Amino acid sequence: MVDAVVSFALNRLADFLIDEAAFLGSVRQKVQWLKNELGWMQCYIASAEEKQADDPIVRKWLNDITKIAYDAEDVIDKFILQVHDQDTNKETEPTGCFPSMSSCIKCKKKVNLRDIGNDIEELKNRINDLPRIRELYQLESSSNKWEGKSNSLARLRQLRRTTSFSIEEKVVGHEDGTSGLLAKLFDRDPRRFVVSVYGMGGLGKTTLARKLYHHLDVKRKFDCRAWVCVSQDYNTRDLLLRIISSFGFITKKKEEQDLERYLHGSLQGRSYLLVIDDIWKKEAWESIKRAFPDTTNGSRVIITTRSKEVAENSDERTYVHKLRFLTFDESWQLFCEKSFGNPNANDVDEELKTLGMEMVQKCGGLPLAIIVLGGLLSKKTKPREWKVVREHIWQDLKKGSIHIPNLFALSFNDLSYQLKLCFLYMSVFPEDFEIDVDQLMRLWVAEDFISQDENKKMEDMAKDSFHELIDRSLIQIAKISWGKIATCRVHDLLRELAIEKAKELNFLYIYDEMKQSTGDSSALSMCRREAVYSVTDKCLWLQHSNPNLRSILFFDPYGYRPDIRMKIEYMYTMFRFLRVLKLHGFKKYGGNLSNEIGKLIHLKYLGLRESLVNDLPQSILNLRTLQTLDVFSPDSVVQLPCEISKLQELRHLFGYFGGHLKIESLTKLHSLKYVFSKCWISINTEELGNLRELWIHGPVGTTKEFCFDSIAKLKTLEQLVVKLDHNDCFASLQPLTHCSYLKDLRLYGKIEKLPEDIHKLLPNLECLLLEDSRLEDDPMPSLEKLHNLMILCLGSRFYSGKKLFCSAQGFRRLEILKLDHEDNGGLEEWQVEEGAMPMLRGFSIPTEFESKLRIPERLKSIPPPAECEFERDIWFEAARRFMNYSSY
């Protein structure tokens, strides 16, 4: 993991050298030397971490390197602060030399380059001392010394090697999955194909594969069967030898190609079943599949993996099964089997039952955790003993099984350094916390965990990283809203791993005064990030905190107290290196933001949601690297400074913004939520070419009609939500023909008529909401031509007619259809021809419509979608309070 920290520092130094080349002068060589040395360290530490992770001397040595990498980053940020302070201390107005220092020529004579030179010299001495320490304690840089020696990862891989003959007598749960997979194995398709089972570590993929492998009907169907476990660093020749042995074949051949030919010939004309357990890379199957004849004998291959990508792309003919978590009832049954020896536990003490259920709930449906917990508690019979386990459940589980502490180590070590940092960041959030996905990705970008790419926006890179963590079964999806993953969560056991790793690297400190222990204050003084769960009036954490903190994130439900607010303002002076400051929920913050905020010149993320800020000080213009400004509060309209356009790095702007918005030159703006329609129509939108998300609300004004001409200039727009006053209406939708990337459109307001060629105007539209549209003509003939439409919500007063008609070829990809109940009482019949909506999986109509609205029986049988799929956004729920702000 140290390689991730060093790689991060390397990228910072590289960017610094590029941006400030003309300004650094003779110091540039020293910065370059520092960068080169960290590069050489990186080559060594990856091997040292893997092969000697369990050696305390090596861990200490790696910890020293971590501190050097952190200090190198501090040297850069300290230098930038010095230049800023020199500039702002002059009598003249700040020159605004950020983020690029090279433009600040006037500052050059004022800044003492000797300071950064001295700081690097100190780092140089520490770096030069590392070889002496390595030699003194016999730490050789060559990995040859460790060849053949056992190490923690090698032992873990050996322990993870599964066999076919270890059979679980009673397998709880997954009956539905087992029956479906058996059907695929017995499918009449004579061609060979792959059945992929994927899911999080500990879910029971191997157990399920064994259940299939030993099923009596499976044994009868296939002429021969084999089982092989694949490690991360597999060897193709070794795999072939083990497969040959598992089939029961015997050969003296040794060369890889000879083994392939032998196995292919031995299987020719036979129906076979091969289980390849614990695959990490799709190349594993690719490297051996030539040896398996694809004839008409109905042969099958089962693979298990933690990676969705591997599962889906292992073969051109693949059936994919995602393994689910156990339900609570299944979890309780499994726990009772392991702890009480029977699945019912009828005669067990009620207090033990209550404690057991609490702990089973904590396991979150993960079979391995439940099995270890049950085995641990089976040896304890007194309630007080169970209470001790409950208070320290994860620590006890790690002690109870060698597999638990190492369960996710392989998954974590397989990540790139950027993904390691992104995963560690999940430990910031409290236990059982539903994490806003968009906010999470903005935080990753602000923390510089996402690499720059000339051909791809950082938001897209962050989204790729997020989905990769999901595909690797390290993050769980919590809610899906409007076709997008809205919130996610991390299993408690995974979170414990992330916290443990984060502590090792001084990556994070969690401060929680509601618990008896707040942790080691020395760790607090060295960490780079703090997550504050609760604080008291004393705010002791401020006294011990590291001035070099890069991030402070508050999750304190009591953070609105005035005494705490005053101490929070003190942070602006104390923590000058902050990149992320998240203070959501400080509701008594007062209307004005402190002028001291302007001292945080490194800040990239400022989160003041629900803090009642309505006026931003002029000093906020000093935050030239600011990417996200979130000042949304349900009861507060925010006035932005007239010169807000100086914040050229601004990408996400959230709040109720009134007055005149001078945002035309914010060319990097990606999200704007939300702006009053009167303000919007006065903005020249030609320069907002990167805007992807736009939310508009409120009365239009004297025209009483909202025109889409300004929207038409936003060529990259993907999401548009416009809510008008009840008396206003939309003009023609025709200008939206220029917004070909639009995927999510939600319109609250009257529409005279939908264009017949709406499918040509919006060819990529996936989600559509129409509310209060008061259409007089049946909209279905137009809407059903939207071939990419997956979600359609028809809100209150969307249609004034009595009949709707969908043709047989309509809505080819529609998955969710919802009809709201308010004021659509005139609707009597909904005709849907056979063949329409073939993909529909969720259908909802008001209860009062069920008796009087005539619809086909097929639609009645489709279950309603989950509520979260149409979650009302807090923006517009709160917006109802602002209809009286006509002056905006």
Describe it.
This protein is an alpha/beta fold. The chain has five domains: 2-149, no CATH class; 157-322, P-loop containing nucleotide triphosphate hydrolases (Rossmann fold, 3-Layer(aba) Sandwich), CATH 3.40.50; 328-406; 415-504, Winged helix-like DNA-binding domain superfamily/Winged helix DNA-binding domain (Arc Repressor Mutant, subunit A, Orthogonal Bundle), CATH 1.10.10; 658-888, Ribonuclease Inhibitor (Leucine-rich repeat, LRR (right-handed beta-alpha superhelix)), CATH 3.80.10.10. The protein is built from 32 helices and 29 strands. Helix 1 crosses helix 21.
**From the alpha-carbon coordinates, what is the Rg to the nearest angstrom?**
31 Å
Average pLDDT metric: 82
Q: Report the biggest beta sheet as strand number plus sense, adding barrel if it closes.
A: 16 strands, parallel
Task: From the 3D structure, determine the CATH topology of the largest domain.
Answer: Leucine-rich repeat, LRR (right-handed beta-alpha superhelix)
Strand content: 5-15%
Q: Write down the CATH class of the largest domain.
A: Alpha Beta
- CATH architectural type of the largest domain: Alpha-Beta Horseshoe
Which oligomeric state applies?
A: single chain
The span between the termini is: 51 Å
Portion of residues within helices: 25-40%
| CATH level-four homologous superfamily name of the largest domain | Ribonuclease Inhibitor
What number of structural domains do the residues give? 5
- State the helix count: 32
- Shape type: globular
Structural class: alpha/beta
Number of strands: 29
GO molecular function: ADP binding
Domain Disease resistance R13L4/SHOC-2-like LRR: 572-846
Domain Disease resistance protein winged helix: 428-498
Keywords: Nucleotide-binding, Plant defense, Repeat
